[in-house]
UniProtKB/TrEMBL annotation:
<dbReference type="InterPro" id="IPR002146">
    <property type="entry name" value="ATP_synth_b/b'su_bac/chlpt"/>
</dbReference>
<keyword id="KW-0066">ATP synthesis</keyword>
<comment type="similarity">
    <text>Belongs to the ATPase B chain family.</text>
</comment>
<dbReference type="InterPro" id="IPR005864">
    <property type="entry name" value="ATP_synth_F0_bsu_bac"/>
</dbReference>
<dbReference type="InterPro" id="IPR028987">
    <property type="entry name" value="ATP_synth_B-like_membr_sf"/>
</dbReference>
<keyword id="KW-0472">Membrane</keyword>
<dbReference type="InterPro" id="IPR050059">
    <property type="entry name" value="ATP_synthase_B_chain"/>
</dbReference>
<protein>
    <recommendedName>
        <fullName>ATP synthase subunit b</fullName>
    </recommendedName>
</protein>
<keyword id="KW-1003">Cell membrane</keyword>
<keyword id="KW-1133">Transmembrane helix</keyword>
<dbReference type="Pfam" id="PF00430">
    <property type="entry name" value="ATP-synt_B"/>
</dbReference>
<comment type="function">
    <text>F(1)F(0) ATP synthase produces ATP from ADP in the presence of a proton or sodium gradient. F-type ATPases consist of two structural domains, F(1) containing the extramembraneous catalytic core and F(0) containing the membrane proton channel, linked together by a central stalk and a peripheral stalk. During catalysis, ATP synthesis in the catalytic domain of F(1) is coupled via a rotary mechanism of the central stalk subunits to proton translocation.</text>
</comment>
<comment type="function">
    <text>Component of the F(0) channel, it forms part of the peripheral stalk, linking F(1) to F(0).</text>
</comment>
<keyword id="KW-0812">Transmembrane</keyword>
<keyword id="KW-0406">Ion transport</keyword>
<keyword id="KW-0175">Coiled coil</keyword>
<keyword id="KW-0138">CF(0)</keyword>
Length: 170
């Protein structure tokens, strides 16, 4: 082999440069024809999947917000119902209390009336029991004051009866 002294080792041969260029163009054609479409299809599928996931997440979030809103509405309805029930129970309690108070007052009135009637009956009975004795004591007192016996029985009874009637009127 003959080595030329004027040849530069850094400078490539034109044949190698042409072969490298042809190989690069073939590689570029294969990549553009087969690999790039597959990558683009994978990227598109992945982007669709991500967008679908985002849409599903948005839909799930919207559904959750709707469920939350319905729950809040139901909770507000339940609170309103509980307040209504409490108010009804309070009103019923007030009615019961008023009815019991009226019943107690009526019973108290009946007991007072019964007591007064019993008291009046006892007063009449006691007065009837004490009337003869009071008459006898009045006659004795009059006899002691006068120092002589009171004349007749009929007159004594009339005076005593008048005195007792006058006491009853007071």
């Amino acid at each position: 082999m003959i080595v030329l002294a004027a040849e530069n080792p850094v400078k490539p041969h034109l044949a190698e440069l042409a072969l490298g260029l042809v190989a690069f163009l073939v590689l570029l054609y294969v990549l553009a024809r087969f690999v790039v479409p597959r990558f683009e299809a994978l990227f598109a599928a992945r982007a669709d999947k991500i967008e679908g996931g985002i849409e599903k997440a948005d839909q799930a979030q919207a559904a959750a917000a709707e469920v939350l809103e319905r729950f809040r509405a139901q909770l507000a309805d339940a609170r309103a119902e509980a307040a209504r029930i409490r108010e009804e129970a309070r009103a019923e309690g007030e009615r019961e209390r008023a009815a019991l108070r009226a019943e107690a007052q009526a019973e108290s009135g009946r007991m007072i009336a019964r007591g007064e009637a019993e008291l009046a009956g006892q007063r009449s009975r006691i007065a009837a029991e004490l009337r003869p004795e009071l008459g006898r004591m009045a006659v004795e007192l009059a006899e002691r004051i006068l120092g002589e016996p009171v004349a007749d029985e009929t007159r004594r009874r009339g005076s005593v009866d008048r005195f007792l009637a006058e006491l009853d009127r007071r």
